[in-house]
Amino acid sequence: MNVQLSLAAAASVAADALVIPVFEGDLPTALHPWIAELEASGEFSGKPAELSIIPQPTGFAAKRLVLAGAGKLDKFTGAEARKLAGSVVRALKARSIKSIAFVTEAGHLGVAVEGAILGDWEADVHKLNKDSKHLETFIAVVPEGAPTLEAALDRARIIAEAQNFARDLANEPGNLLTPNVLAARARAMSATYGLDCEVLDEDRMRQLGFGSLLGVAQGSAEPPTFMVIRYTPAAPVEGVHLALVGKAVTFDTGGISIKPSEGMEQMKYDMCGGAAALGAMQAIAQLKPAIPVTAFIPSVENMPGSRAQRPGDIVKSLAGKTVEVLNTDAEGRLILIDAMTWAIRQGATHLVDAATLTGAIGVALGAVNAGAFSNDQPLLDRVLTASKKQGEKMWPMPMDDEYKELLKCAYADMPNISGGRAGGAITAAKFLEEWTEGKPWVHLDIASMAWMTDAKPFLSKGPTGFGVRTFVDLALHW
Ligand code: BES
Ligand code: MN
Ligand code: ZN
């Protein structure tokens, strides 16, 4: 999709549709005689999701004038503006409209562009008979704007395209995206955007002692990979090195503690934490924050089989602590702890991980908020501020030590699960915390946010790319 900025008067911009967001009770009746008619009849009042199309409007260069309900003015945040642009794009492209000129105020230009690019994305690469439609051109029209807005437009395009890159990765099924394929995609992205990409293979991880990660990987014919992608600014800020750690299980059968077959196909998206970290690095490489940022992405396939790890197996993590694997389906935390240890050894001062870690987080928070767990209030505040600005909702979760007491182990230093299901997302976080070595750390459990089983008006169903924007914002506004 081609994205442009226009500073011209709205009436003079040529497009299939000129879209004017309209707040409730604030109809622009002077624009066109038909608008007063719409208001009087009650057909259009500016409520969210309302759309009204006026064809061949006299006095306009565009073929259609489209009024888009923006809801109440005092509720119209950046997040709402992003959704509005996405909803408009999805609704109009479904009617085969190819070019949209979208009128926005300067302050919402970026979110409008993001919403449009995210709204245009479809999970259709593997459909030979594609029935989905795409927009060709999106023109952000800012009549009172200045040419400096080009920078805001570029930033928004970079971020939204990075998020779509994460969605492309997440959309690939387990047979087509193995840990090696993911590493190849990471290498290609890094080469394109000038990032340093190192991939540790199985032998190297064995030499180094990634025992916890390798225990998960051993059941699969697909070898594991561990991606380390570095962004180093020209003049780095001293004393801080942000690590983005992302779980990338390319398929999670559960292993010997096998999952029920119903819904198992969804476990191809168990690499969304890693995809979010990769997407964020793609944007970070272009937007160049002042702090060094490194992504650490452990990738495995979790399979049952004659070589698979057994319940009761004891593995030695990279940090030296032993873990009793009571449930092979609690594999995400097993690969993350070795990644966290490696990140700390590579000089990371702050760790933020994203992982589709537990079904329990969806029980606690539904598909509205990701869970945010931390050992450090200032870092948590930074992450929550970024999340709020970016409209990626996250909710802080408790980390009381009483939860750690549920992780009792007779035969090793730690069990990988607690005795019961109670507080499952929290006990998983308490397990991870044992590998932070006191470094400020935030864990984002994105299991219920990374994939939407139903489409939203502003986003297709499937992978969401959740976390990319928060990661990028965190790095840019450190
Ligand atoms: N990948 C799953 C978590 C998950 C569930 C992600 C649903 C997305 C949607 C994770 O590896 C897992 O299997 N977790 C177990 C933990 C349990 C064995 C303690 C779970 O949530 O059931
Ligand atoms: Mn699992
Ligand atoms: Zn998993």
The count of strands amounts to 20
Bound molecules: ligand BES, manganese (II) ion, zinc ion
Gyration radius, in Å: 24 Å
CATH superfamily of the largest domain: Zn peptidases
Low-pLDDT stretches are none
The structural class is alpha/beta
Mean pLDDT: 97
- Termini separation: 31 Å
Specify the biggest β-sheet. Answer: 9 strands, mixed
Percent of residues in helical segments? 25-40%
Shape type: elongated
CATH class of the largest domain: Alpha Beta
Question: What percentage of amino acids are in beta strands?
Answer: 15-25%
Assigned CATH architecture of the largest domain = 3-Layer(aba) Sandwich
Q: What's the number of helices?
A: 14
Number of domains: 2
- Provide the CATH topology of the largest domain: Aminopeptidase
What does this protein look like?
This protein is an alpha/beta fold and 478 residues long. It folds into two domains: 2-145, 3-Layer(aba) Sandwich (Leucine Aminopeptidase, subunit E, domain 1), CATH 3.40.220.10; 160-476, Zn peptidases (Aminopeptidase, 3-Layer(aba) Sandwich), CATH 3.40.630. It is built from 14 helices and 20 strands. The strands form four sheets. Strands 7, 8, 9, 10, 11, 14, 15, 16 and 18 form a nine-stranded mixed β-sheet that branches. The protein has a six-stranded mixed β-sheet with strand order 1-6-5-2-4-3, covered by helices on one side. It is elongated, with a radius of gyration of 24 Å. The structure holds ligand BES, manganese (II) ion (MN) and zinc ion.
Précis, in short:
The chain is built from 14 helices and 20 strands. It is of the alpha/beta class. The mean pLDDT is 97.
